[in-house]
Amino acid sequence: MDQADAVRLPDAERARAERDQEEAVRRELEDYYRAGRPPWDTGVTPPELVALVEGRGAPPPGRALELGCGTGTNAAYLARRGWEVVAVDLVERAVRQAREKVGAAARVLCGDATRLDELDVPGPYDLFFDLSCYCGIPPHRRDGYASGLTRRAAPGARLLMFGYGPEAFDDPVSGVTAEELRARFAGWDLVDTTPGTNPFPTFWFTLRRNAAAA
Ligand SMILES: C[S@@+](CC[C@H](N)C(=O)[O-])C[C@H]1O[C@@H](n2cnc3c(N)ncnc32)[C@H](O)[C@@H]1O
C-alpha cells in the first residue's frame, strides 16, 4: 500500500491496512533470522562507517544509536572504538545474537526504530547509524523514525545511513532517495550522498543535525 492508496481509505480501514503492512514486514524479517544467517549479516563493518569513525575529521567518541542493528557487528565495532552505544532491532532473534556479540560493551534493545519513545533511549546522541533499516520501513512509519531521531539528536549530530534505492525492490513502497530524506528530515542537512558499489542503486547518505535548529 503506498501513501496515495492509504489516503483514499477511511481511517479505520487505513489503520488496519497499515498494521497489516507492519506485521508483514516484521514476519518477513523474522523468517530471515529463523532460517539462519540472513544474506546481509556479513560480519564486516563497512568502510564508510570506519571512515567516519576513524578517518580524517572523525568526531571524538560520544553517544551512538544504531537503528536496525541486526546481530550487532557494527554496535560492537563502535563500542570498541570508545562510543557509548545503544542498538535497536525489531526482531528478538537478532537482538539475542547481538547481545551475545557485544556483551556488556553496548545496550541492545528489542523494539521499533520508528517508536523510540517506547524504549529507554533518551539520548542525546552524537551519531545515528542505519545500515539498510530505514529503506524497508513502511512509508506511514517514516515520519515517526525521523522525528524520533530529531528529538534525540545532539546539536551537529550525524546520521550515516545506507539505503537501497526504490529500483532495488519489487514492491512500490520500499527504498529511499536523497529527495525523500531532504523532505522528511526537517532541521537536518543532507551533506553527502555517495552511491554504493552494488549492481543496483544503493546510497550512503550523511545527514547533519542543523546546530541552529537543535
Ligand atoms: C537489512 S537488515 C540489516 C541489519 C544490520 N544493519 C546489518 O547490516 O547486518 C535490516 C534490519 O533492520 C531491522 N528492522 C527493520 N525494521 C525495523 C524497525 N522498524 N525497527 C527496528 N529494527 C528494524 C531488521 O530486523 C533487520 O535486522
UniProtKB/TrEMBL annotation:
Keywords linked to the UniProt accession: Methyltransferase, S-adenosyl-L-methionine, Transferase
Q: Quote the CDD domains the UniProt record gives.
A: AdoMet_MTases
Note the superkingdom of the native organism: Bacteria
Where is this chain compositionally biased, Basic and acidic residues type? 8-23
Chain spans, region Disordered: 1-23
One GO MF term on file is: methyltransferase activity
Q: Name one GO biological process term.
A: methylation
- Official protein name in the record: Class I SAM-dependent methyltransferase
